[in-house]
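Run log // design_07
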């Protein structure tokens, strides 16, 4: 398995780049988020890679960060989502946006990705909600969001209580996130969330 490649950019033709490593040219498919961060031709870069092997092709995918690679691997584990669709998702949404989109159950935003319908977007959200919390991400902005959400252990109970009252997950999250005082009990959080509605 090829874990990463470090070499010179020989050509860029989205979504493909040609990377020369010790005299060998590797063709890699990259999401647009990686393309935006690539340097100029002949610049030396490091790309984290994923090798997809099928009967008719061996395809190498390249990512600017380990987070992108990890999320890509989680996406292709979802039934019905292949590497090309996962690449389209990462081209449409950056990693922090995708994680937020799944946490808030924003299927409409996810469905705006070319090749993703409403049904697939909902399936992605259902399958990835638990899995993404277990994925180790290196980006500080992503981990900080996760820490902020869990700073009060009563927050999650309040959100679940609001859901049982008939509010959607996204609505319940928004209602609770507006509360400034983070040291409230579950009942106080629910009361304030309902007052702020």
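design_07 sequence
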């Amino acid at each position: 398995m090829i874990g990463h490649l470090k070499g010179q950019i020989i050509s860029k033709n989205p979504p493909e780049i040609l990377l020369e490593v010790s005299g060998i040219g590797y063709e890699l498919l990259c999401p647009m988020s990686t393309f935006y961060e690539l340097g100029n031709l002949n610049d030396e870069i490091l790309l984290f890679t994923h090798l997809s092997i099928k009967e008719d092709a061996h395809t190498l995918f390249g990512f600017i960060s380990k987070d992108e690679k990890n999320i890509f691997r989680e996406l292709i584990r979802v039934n019905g989502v292949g590497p090309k669709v996962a690449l389209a998702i990462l081209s449409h949404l950056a990693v922090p946006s995708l994680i937020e989109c799944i946490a808030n159950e924003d299927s409409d935003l996810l469905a705006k990705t070319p090749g993703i319908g409403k049904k697939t977007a909902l399936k992605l959200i259902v399958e990835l909600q638990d899995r993404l919390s277990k994925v180790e991400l290196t980006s500080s902005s992503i981990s900080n969001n996760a820490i902020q959400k869990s700073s009060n252990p009563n927050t999650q109970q309040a959100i679940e209580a609001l859901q049982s009252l008939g509010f959607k997950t996204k609505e319940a999250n928004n209602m609770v996130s507006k509360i400034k005082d983070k040291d409230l009990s579950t009942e106080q959080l629910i009361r304030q969330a309902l007052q702020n509605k």
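The first helix runs from residue 32 to 37.
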